[in-house]
Description:
The chain has helices at residues 11-23, 56-60, 79-100, 135-153, 176-180, 199-211, 228-235, 244-256, 264-272, 280-286, 294-310, and strands spanning 2-6, 28-33, 45-48, 65-68, 104-108, 158-164, 166-168, 186-188, 193-194, 196-198, 216-220, 226-227, 240-242. With 337 residues, it is α/β, with parallel strands linked by helices. The protein has a domain at 2-168 and 195-220: NAD(P)-binding Rossmann-like Domain (Rossmann fold), CATH 3.40.50.720. The chain is globular and about 55 Å long.
Amino acid sequence: MRLGITGVAGYIGRLFAERVVAAGIAERIVGVDLAPAPFPASRIQCVRRDVRDPGLAADLAGCDAVVHFAFVVETMRDRKLMYDVNLNGTRNVLAACERAGVSTLVVASSVAAYGVQGDRVIDERTPCLGDARSFYAHTKRLVEDELDVFATRNPGVRLVRVRPSVVLGPRCNTWALGAMAELGRVDTRRGMRLPLVHEDDVVEAFFRALVRPVEGPILVAHRRSLAMADIARRLGRKPLVLPDAWVLRLGDAAFSAGLTRMSSDWLSLTVGNRFDFDPSASEAALDWRPAHDPMETLFVVLANAARLRSRGQRFDARTDRLEGTRYDLPASPGDHP
């Protein structure tokens, strides 16, 4: 297999690339990212390139499979730039795949693409509604539309859309460290829920989506999500219970002040969904199920956040970084903060 990976220096792209290298399934791997990738040239041919750059087509030439991770996840103040990277960047990847004649394309989508579904149990067939209040969900849904067009135009390409819930784990070094550290302080009257899945489970799902003869949407999630009330109880916090609209305003105020990346962009999904899932079809197709407990996964991340703070790390949310916020994790993880 000759494999191309976009977003190879990102959180999940990097872990996925390590999994592919360890499995020895690819004779050639081309990794593309705006940020430098932490791989020796002997393992992966790394190219520093913006995913919107037309030169991407030359990078992916000769690949028969591509996995597309490159996407702006953390909320940015420059929404036009976020839109441009997420939508036009994906269009550029799809055009490059057409030119390369790839036979397999795996795209990192998200449960955010489903938008606000209320109490509905979400499965692979649930329509992707997006949400105008959430720029991330909105662009993920637009990408799903682009994938529909690509699939119609390229019926011979095996197209897989992997839709994970919120990905966390011991190697998470992103803006989520600061955001997760604030959990349990605020809740809604209805009760917010947080859909988490461990990084190793997500990487394994992507790997199986690449190597197994599956196509279409793949849902990577636990059946039940974590209740904010349970998270607060584990942390010994008593959350301030507010109406939904107040929670969204509070999130936007904190984002505007540079205190967090957890704006209403994300909170609108959390307050509007119960986040119950039925991934039965995906589990059967991949012969896979998540192996890690979501609450314990969260507390590993909180432990890393606490140790970073003890070293004087500030979770600065004032600066937009196109390549994403990255922190240097402590060398030896503990159990709980």
